[in-house]
Design the sequence.
């Protein structure tokens, strides 16, 4: 069962259109919300005239933050518990100042979304424009326009870290180089946009919120806080979700707004994000600039790595904002390499752009780009093969855990053999020969590598100051012998109904089709942490395994008492129907509730000053071969292979699907996608015609090879979902750099789009094809 | 002002009063409760709203309901049930061609339409035909495999 390619239990309903997503929950009297969003990047509001909007037939209410305040709304905060972070709280709607195009200022509730939008069109908002600040470095300059003048700066957070002797090590290193690496702004873009729907039952005082949300229990807490309700009065249900990818991990203004409006109007209300809102006013991700200085010896060993990270937060009015991913970035800069001396500074900066937050990978693609580019540049400088440079720098095979800078307990399997397996499976040497032959024939072919060591199943304590690292599960064997599993994690497409059923079925000795998995409802369980951070297999899988094990042990005791070899159905009937016959001291029923933690994180510094945020690590090594057309800048992937070690593989089909999908997103990010702003802060990507995600034509097949190094957590699982999206940008950047090296082009950013490559080629003196030049 | 529209939905005669600005997507979802057609962009770019009109795959967000007079509309709900999947749905399941499932009904309908016209399509043709339907989860490999299997093709790049 564990390890089988079990077909998915969720598929039949999703394939036949019977999935039930947020907008599929019409109820009688449902009203819809549309928002007046700022058309300018920075402005002080002078007045809002709602009269014409309120007078439109079908309009139920037109509200500003003043109305929400009057109804008892409480402010939202970023919850970041980090010393030195600037103070910041905000209303569910903006009030005096708007700080990005798309910031919501007025809410309209109407009988239909169309009427609500009509009403938004006739709102009259008078404002004085303030100067925008879009570029993150400009925002740090003296005299820059300030988003929050009370801070006296746009820097929201600054942190530093360095090992003793870092400067000396850099000074003494035989070779030292400094480079700037940049990750550009993108959007996660789940195909189903965000959304929420709420209804308030005055009879019971219960507020029920449907939300396309990765962490329903945590949203319950936030909504209770913002709406001045007790947690028992709020039920959050996350129905089927059309993707999440971190975009639906944050607790948004709109979710809280829907909850407030249901209470204020007494009507069921829905907000369904449209694609324009999704691209401009939801969450962006990744924008960081790294200035890396690295020292290395003649053998290619990196002796010291110092990185200054500048992270663009947009307007940080978002739970944990871009700070959360940035903290992960600086913690992962050495990746899977043993680099003796290390330091970083982190500057998180507010700009008048859409809030920046999580996207699958969560800060790791940026650190991984830097780490892997460093290895490639060292290799190029010294004329050593990049695979060999990596081998010389990888973490030693022992001890485990390897204690990284800052204290992270890295528990991966031996990396040298995994690298061997990658080179062998990819036929690296053959590819190098083919590359030489193709180069001789005038073709620009490159090979890129990624040796990713990735923290998975992290504690949330570091960014929320509460919660931590656990998951809750209830496993029950029902009187007829069928099994139910309830978990606090929430699937957005990751196949939880199947893989968690595989775990329960294996533990209980039954079949997967007799197990029903339910998630995404705060009424199922007291608390849960949701799905993010590649955590569900480790945390929810672990919880299900422990709970099922307890039920199994009880069944074993009852069966022994019954005598013979009773079937599971007979034991279940005995436990629920014939309680008087149970052995002494055994409670009736077959159900176990478990709040599981592996207990391996260190969320606040211990006596040694160590923190460790991940329960376990995965190791994933990737090789890609690409060809770049120097005339057009087009990149074609010729081959891609990933050697995956996520510990015990529950369902290889699902793991391969996670890697293929993550690879497509990582490839899309560097070849096709970029969120762009004009200098005055106007978003340039407002439709899917401007923000182009890859189609079936552009995405190549990723070959996946499995290896299994058991983790020390329950069941031996390691997280996997964020591996390929983290590996792809670094591997592709390495491959494109390798392809274009003969032309004197250096790659230092994730911008590998054709037009960017054409610009680099021209700057290197390559005459592009005239037709391509025309469209540059 | 509302307009009377007579058409056929999943084999049954239907008659509605529609506002000029109501799209076919609005109508199948809100009037007929056929929520297998999804709003992914409402501007013709993602394909998640695909339905068949007179047997051909169209984007229901780009078609006004009033344009459907006299036409026959089929949604995913007319193809297979959870207990008895259509062969294309069965192939999708076998090849792990879906994760969140939001793109899936539209992808299935597009694939059915495509194979109806070219039953022995090559992988390249299949990829081109599916390129109007975006999927953010799967990276398309399983989808391509599923359609190739019904076209009697081994995916060449696997
Ligand atoms: S919703 Fe119709 S194409 Fe996207
Ligand atoms: S399966 Fe999620 S968008 Fe295709």
Sequence:
């Amino acid at each position: 069962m564990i390890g089988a390619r079990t077909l998915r239990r969720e598929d039949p309903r999703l394939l036949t259109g019977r999935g039930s997503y947020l907008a599929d929950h019409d109820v009688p009297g449902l009203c819809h919300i549309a928002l007046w969003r700022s058309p300018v990047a920075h402005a002080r509001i002078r007045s809002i005239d709602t009269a014409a909007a309120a007078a439109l037939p079908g309009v139920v209410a037109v509200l500003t933050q003043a109305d929400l305040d009057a109804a008892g709304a409480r402010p939202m905060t970023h919850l970041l518990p980090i010393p030195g972070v600037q103070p910041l709280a905000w209303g569910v709607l903006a009030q005096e100042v708007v700080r990005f195009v798309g910031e919501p200022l007025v809410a309209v509730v109407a009988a239909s979304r169309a009427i609500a939008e009509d009403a938004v069109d006739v709102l009259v908002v008078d404002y004085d424009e303030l100067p925008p600040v879009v570029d993150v470095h400009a925002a740090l300059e003296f005299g820059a326009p300030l988003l929050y003048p009370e801070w006296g700066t746009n820097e929201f957070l600054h942190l530093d870290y360095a090992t003793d002797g870092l400067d000396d090590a850099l000074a003494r290193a035989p070779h030292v180089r400094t480079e700037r690496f940049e990750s550009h702004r993108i959007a996660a873009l789940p195909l189903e946009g965000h959304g929420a729907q709420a209804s308030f039952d005055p009879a019971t005082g219960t507020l029920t919120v449907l939300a396309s949300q990765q962490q329903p229990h945590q949203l319950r807490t936030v909504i209770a806080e913002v709406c001045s309700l007790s947690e028992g009065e709020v039920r959050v249900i996350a129905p089927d979700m059309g993707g999440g990818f971190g975009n639906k991990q944050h607790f948004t203004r709109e979710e809280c707004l829907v909850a407030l409006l249901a209470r204020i109007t007494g009507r069921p209300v829905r907000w369904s994000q449209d694609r324009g809102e999704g691209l401009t006013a939801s969450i962006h991700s990744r924008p960081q600039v790294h200035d890396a200085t690295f020292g290395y010896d003649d053998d290619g060993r990196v002796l010291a790595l110092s990185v200054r990270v500048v992270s663009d937060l947009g307007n940080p009015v978002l739970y944990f904002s871009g700070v959360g991913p940035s903290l992960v970035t600086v913690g992962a800069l050495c990746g899977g390499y043993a680099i003796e001396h290390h330091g970083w500074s982190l500057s998180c900066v507010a700009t008048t752009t859409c809030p920046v937050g999580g996207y699958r990978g969560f800060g790791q693609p940026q650190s991984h780009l830097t780490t892997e580019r460093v290895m490639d540049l060292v290799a190029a400088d010294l004329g050593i093969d990049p695979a060999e440079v990596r081998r010389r720098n990888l973490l030693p095979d022992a001890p485990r855990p390897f204690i990284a800078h800052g204290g992270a307990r890295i528990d991966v399997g031996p990396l040298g053999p995994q690298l061997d397996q990658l080179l062998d499976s990819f036929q690296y040497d053959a590819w190098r020969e083919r590359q030489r032959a193709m180069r001789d024939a005038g073709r620009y072919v490159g090979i890129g590598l990624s040796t990713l060591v990735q923290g998975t199943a992290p504690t949330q304590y570091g960014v929320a100051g509460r919660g931590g690292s656990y998951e809750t599960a209830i496993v029950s064997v029902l009187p007829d012998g069928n099994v139910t599993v309830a978990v606090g994690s929430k699937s957005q497409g990751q196949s939880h109904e199947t893989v968690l059923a595989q775990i329960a079925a294996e533990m209980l000795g039954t079949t997967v089709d007799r197990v029903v998995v339910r998630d995404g409802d705060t009424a199922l369980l007291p608390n849960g942490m949701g799905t993010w951070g590649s955590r569900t297999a480790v945390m929810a899988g672990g919880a299900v395994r422990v709970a099922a094990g307890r039920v199994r042990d009880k069944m074993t005791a009852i069966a022994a008492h019954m005598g013979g070899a009773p079937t599971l159905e007979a034991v279940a009937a005995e436990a629920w129907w014939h309680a008087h016959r149970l052995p002494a001291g055994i409670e009736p029923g077959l159900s176990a509730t478990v709040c599981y933690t592996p207990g391996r994180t260190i969320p606040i510094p211990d006596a040694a000053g160590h923190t460790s945020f991940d329960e376990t690590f995965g190791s994933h090594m990737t090789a890609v071969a690409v060809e770049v057309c120097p005339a057009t800048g087009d990149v074609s992937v010729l081959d891609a292979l990933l050697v995956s070690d996520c510990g015990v593989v529950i369902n290889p089909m699902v793991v391969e699907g996670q890697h293929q999908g993550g690879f497509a997103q990582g490839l899309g990010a560097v070849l096709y996608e970029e969120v762009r702003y004009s200098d005055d802060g106007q978003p340039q990507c407002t439709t899917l015609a401007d923000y182009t995600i890859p189609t079936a034509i552009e995405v190549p097949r990723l070959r996946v090879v499995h290896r299994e190094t058991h983790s020390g957590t329950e069941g031996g699982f390691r997280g996997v979902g964020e591996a390929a999206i983290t590996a792809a940008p670094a591997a592709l950047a390495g491959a494109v750099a390798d392809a274009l090296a003969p032309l004197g082009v250096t790659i230092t950013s994730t911008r590998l789009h054709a037009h960017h490559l054409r610009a680099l080629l021209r700057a290197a003196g390559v005459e592009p094809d005239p037709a391509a030049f025309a469209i540059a | 002002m509302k307009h009377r529209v007579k058409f056929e939905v999943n084999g049954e005669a239907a008659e509605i009063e529609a506002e000029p600005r109501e799209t076919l997507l609005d109508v199948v979802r809100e009037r007929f409760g056929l929520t297998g057609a999804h709003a992914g962009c409402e501007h013709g770019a993602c394909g998640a709203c695909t339905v068949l009109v007179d047997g051909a795959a169209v984007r229901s967000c780009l078609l006004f309901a009033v344009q459907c007079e006299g036409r026959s509309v089929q949604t995913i709900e007319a193809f297979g049930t959870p207990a008895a999947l259509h062969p294309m749905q069965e192939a999708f399941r076998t090849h792990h061609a879906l994760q969140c499932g939001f793109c899936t009904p539209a992808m299935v309908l597009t694939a059915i339409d495509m194979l109806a016209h070219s039953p022995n399509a090559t992988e390249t043709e299949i990829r081109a035909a599916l390129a109007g339907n975006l999927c953010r989860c799967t990276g398309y490999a399983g989808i391509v495999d599923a359609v190739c299997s019904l076209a009697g093709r081994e995916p060449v790049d696997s």
Summary: Chain A is about 30% helix and 25% strand. Chain A touches chain B through 56 residues (CB under 8 Å). Chain A has three domains: 11-130+194-272, 284-460+606-770, 470-596. Residues 11-130+194-272 of chain A form a domain with the Aldehyde Oxidoreductase; domain 3 fold (CATH 3.90.1170.50).
